[in-house]
Design the sequence.
């Protein structure tokens, strides 16, 4: 039997998928899925379909892919939704759209708000060397992740996580937390609490240039960067006169502590795996054949 709430889901990338799947499996009524338009990607400009769209098609859900959210205001209003669920949609939602939801829009945000408001909380937590992170259920407001919080779930970090690993972990946690708390939110039994704006920290949008490594920074910063930027913008560096993308590394004790060890400022970094100029992914050991230490 369908639950009485009428939900509109906003999401785009892989983080969104387990959350939408959990709602469908729990028999919530998802009356529409709003996602980003299909895009062209790669050298061949092949069509890239948002992962959430693929899942929505599997469950035969109505799909909306507006270029601008103002295009679908009347459509959403006609669906008479009670609540919205947002998880990594990728665009700011205007107040005119938020106002269409009597119960508000619940944002599944992968950080412990007010820490790491913004678009890249997972990457930023890894890059900053945080000892913990988590998921927050927040009532969406017009400000950047400034709305009051319904619930949070903490996760202790090991210092070895990569962005794709942590993204998948937090997505599952977020899906479970949402399913646990959504009945009380819909019933009005759980009210959100305001964030402490004084403690707020913010992430930034990443650009390709952010991934450049010139060996002028400490080794531990580069090690965290490589894990944080594994999906985008990736960590590119010149090694032995060749432009490479480093995909795995560790902090070394000295220049002899490993096969492909780079001198940083300060410290040393052993490159364990990289993508060579040919596009082939190889180990640092294989690449180091014929390589002379800097």
Sequence:
């Amino acid at each position: 039997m369908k639950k009485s709430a009428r939900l509109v889901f906003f999401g785009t990338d892989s983080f969104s998928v387990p959350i939408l799947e959990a709602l469908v499996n729990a028999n919530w009524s998802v009356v529409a899925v709003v996602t980003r338009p299909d895009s062209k990607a790669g050298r061949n400009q092949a069509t890239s379909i948002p992962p959430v769209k693929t899942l929505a098609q599997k469950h035969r859900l109505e799909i909306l892919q507006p270029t601008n959210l103002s295009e679908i205001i009347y459509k959403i209003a006609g669906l008479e939704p009670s609540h919205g669920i947002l998880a990594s949609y990728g665009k700011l939602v205007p107040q005119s759209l938020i106002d269409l939801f009597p119960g508000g829009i619940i944002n599944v945000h992968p950080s412990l708000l007010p820490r790491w408001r913004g678009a890249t909380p997972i990457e930023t937590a890894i890059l900053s060397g945080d000892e913990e992170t988590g998921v927050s259920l927040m009532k969406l407001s017009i400000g950047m992740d400034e709305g009051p919080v319904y619930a949070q779930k903490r996760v202790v970090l090991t210092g070895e996580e990569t962005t794709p690993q942590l993204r998948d972990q937090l997505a599952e946690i977020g899906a479970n937390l949402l399913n646990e708390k959504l009945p009380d939110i819909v019933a009005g039994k759980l009210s959100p609490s305001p964030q402490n704006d004084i403690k707020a920290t913010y992430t930034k949008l990443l650009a390709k240039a952010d991934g450049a490594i010139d060996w002028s920074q400490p080794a531990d910063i580069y090690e965290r960067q490589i894990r944080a930027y594994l999906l985008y913008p990736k960590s590119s560096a010149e090694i032995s006169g060749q432009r490479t993308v480093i995909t795995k590394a560790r902090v070394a004790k000295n220049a002899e502590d490993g096969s492909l060890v780079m001198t940083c400022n300060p410290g040393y970094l052993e490159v364990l795996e990289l993508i060579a100029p040919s596009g082939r992914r190889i180990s640092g050991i294989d690449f180091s054949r014929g390589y002379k230490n800097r």
Remarks:
- The chain has a mean pLDDT of 94.
- The two ends are 67 Å apart (CA to CA).
- The chain has two domains: 6-199, 208-287.
- Helices lie at 16-25, 51-58, 73-79, 95-98, 121-127, 163-186, 219-228, 284-287.
